[in-house]
Amino acid sequence: MDNLVQEKIMHNIISTIEEKVDDELYKLDQLDGTSLEKLREQRLNEMKHEAQLRNDWISKGHGEYTEIDEKDFFAACKKSPEIIIHFYKRDAPRCKIFDHHLKIIASKHLEARFLKINAENAPFLAGKLRIKVIPTLLIAVNGKTKDYIVGFSDLGNCDDFSTEVLEWRLGLSGVIKYEGDITQPANKNANKSKINRLSKKTIRENYSSDESD
């Protein structure tokens, strides 16, 4: 991982932890006695667990937007329970728009791994996963295909949608922890489109294109 990117991620993590510590210290000041000690111990354990989890995510490549080859796809799915994969082509302008937004969201949501695969170099995988439109985001949770974002139809059918709108759409799929109002797109001016969900497909090496749960 690039040192500058890693430093930025760690800075964001530290800032988030500091804010939580300040908030918890204020709450602790309002308590006393046995309740105070129990709550203090509970919160410290929770914060340690969160820090360990974040370190584990970073060690697995979370926090950055990474390109992988077709052969690395299944290993990546086994390593990270929540994955967003961008199937792209180099000469497709809309793929570059996705690249811009996904890089930003990846640095914010360490709980998921953000990847990209050149569909032209992965015809077998693209065929098995029924990738027919470029760009397409495939969303996998716990080794199964959970959702697709095909083109920009769910993002207002425009090229100038905001990063927040894509973040909301990913939150709607359950692959990231969205902190806003999930019932409304982040951009109120965005066209509301019906979100079509494809049947879940099991992601494994013997995946069959006509197989469904």
From TrEMBL:
CDD domains: Phd_like_TxnDC9. It comes from the Eukaryota. It holds the Pfam family Thioredoxin. Residues 67-153 form the Thioredoxin domain. PANTHER family: THIOREDOXIN DOMAIN-CONTAINING PROTEIN 9. This is Thioredoxin domain-containing protein 9.
